[in-house]
Amino acid sequence: MVPIRVLVADDHPEFRKLVHSFLSSLPHVQVVGEAADGEEAVEQVEHLCPDLVLMDISMPKRNGLDATRIIKERWPKTRVVIATMYDNEVYRQGARDAQADGFILKSTLKPHLIAALDVRNRSISV
Predict the structure, then answer these.
(1) Widest distance between CA atoms in the chain
(2) Contact at 8 Å (CB) between 43 and 49?
(3) Between 89-97 and 64-74, two packed helices, what is the crossing angle to 10 degrees?
(4) Tens digit of pLDDT for each residue in 90-121?
(5) Helices (H), ranges, the chain
(6) Half-sphere exposure of 121 (CA within 13 A, CB side)
(7) I need a surface site. Which of 6, 17, 77, 114 has the fewest CB within 10 A?
(8) What is d(CA 26, CA 32) in angstroms, rounded to the nearest whole number?
(9) Cα separation, 64 vs 42, whole angstroms
(10) What is the pLDDT of residue 13?
């Protein structure tokens, strides 16, 4: 089985480390990179060609929704799943408007992230 290539974009190094560790423990997943802000996320997608980007909303330089919009315009086959601690309709609508493939709360990340890794699953609660 070809591994799913994942990029983790979040401005908190501790969160990136935890997610990287969790994803690396899964046999069918390869973490190909990390980004600390939205600009870096867009650059990393261009260079690393991940299958999935796990994207935080609130980041410096370019927020995750803007970065998602750019990624989906330039690389429409790259799946982008928003991972945030903000559970409100404004952010959910922002994710939909940016064409995100999913919206996951960080408080329930593990079970929903496993569902997001299934490339056949096209609806992760956006």
Answers:
(1) 38
(2) no
(3) 20
(4) 999 999 999 999 888 888 777 777 766 665 44
(5) 13-24, 38-48, 64-74, 89-97, 109-117
(6) 16
(7) 77
(8) 14
(9) 10
(10) 94
